[in-house]
Amino acid sequence: MRTTYQSRLSYKRILISLLFIVLMRPIANLVNLLVDDFTISYTFSFNFVAGLLIFYDWNLFGIHYNRMKANLSDFFIYTIIGLILFGIWVYFNYRLLGGYVLVPDPKTIQNYLFASPAIHFAFSFSQSLIISIGFKCLTDHLDIREKELLIILASGFLFGLFYTVLFIPYTLEAFVRTYLYNVIVVSIMSYLYNQSSSFLPGTFAYGIVLLLFQLF
Fold first, then answer.
1. What is the 3-state secondary structure (H, E, C) of 188-212?
2. In Å, how far are 9, 48, 174, 193 from 88, measured between CA atoms?
3. For residues 162 and 121, what is the distance between their CA atoms, to the nearest angstrom?
4. pLDDT tens digits for 75-84?
5. Distance of CA 59 to the CA centre of its chain
6. Half-sphere exposure of 91 (CA within 13 A, CB side)
7. CB-facing half-sphere around the CA of 185: CA atoms within 13 A
8. Close Cβ partners of 38 (under 8 Å, ≥ 6 residues apart)
9. How many whole angstroms separate alpha carbon 23 and alpha carbon 50?
10. Among candidates 98, 116, 96, which has minimal Cα distance to 40?
11. Is residue 113 exposed (0-12), middle (13-18) or buried (19+ Cβ within 10 Å)?
């Protein structure tokens, strides 16, 4: 007998959460009118939106935190696996694919050394958390339980497209390359989530890799 899938998230919560993510670029553009520096603008936008998502989706965040805390061995194992997978993919993208990745401008870092921790945190962990909560919300009502490969691919293609459109590259080639990059990033996150039952291993792993990519 087939069981009925029931989502933990209401449609209202999903739509509002996705709206927060959609607002990232407009918020950054508004802040940029004041500061005339997109690194500072996106630092504010990423941190602000990540904070909104944690506050608004506190119950969702709490569920995944408790799952992580209840099984720390899985958290560490899949965070390490994530570090390896993301590390390989980000390096491949940097060397060959050339997908657009939001990273801070080194000149801004040099000019605002006192703010560099907040800048690096925004472009790594805040951005990673936004993607994690975003793909979870966007695919939460898809009734494809017990079909691991399908949910991983659905997450990658759907939220990968959503996230790529938010920061539309200026050429078709750049769009395709960036979309492919985002599809694999979200697919890896979805895989780690399906294996560990928490989106936090993927959040930490991708955040660490993005931070290392910025620093080195």
1. HHHHHHHHHCCCHHHHHHHHHHHHH
2. 33, 29, 20, 19
3. 23
4. 999 999 999 9
5. 19
6. 9
7. 34
8. 28, 32, 105
9. 11
10. 116
11. exposed
Question: Tens digit of pLDDT for each residue in 32-69?
Answer: 999 999 999 999 999 999 999 999 999 999 999 999 99
Helix boundaries (H) for 23-169: 24-35, 38-56, 58-70, 72-92, 106-111, 116-121, 127-138, 148-166
Question: How many CB atoms lie under 10 A from the CB of residue 5?
Answer: 11
Whole-model pTM over 0.70: yes
Distance between CA atoms of residues 49 and 55, nearest Å: 10
Specify the residue for token string 């993919």. 89
Tokens of 38: 């997109």
Look up residue 206 and give its two tokens. Answer: 């991708």
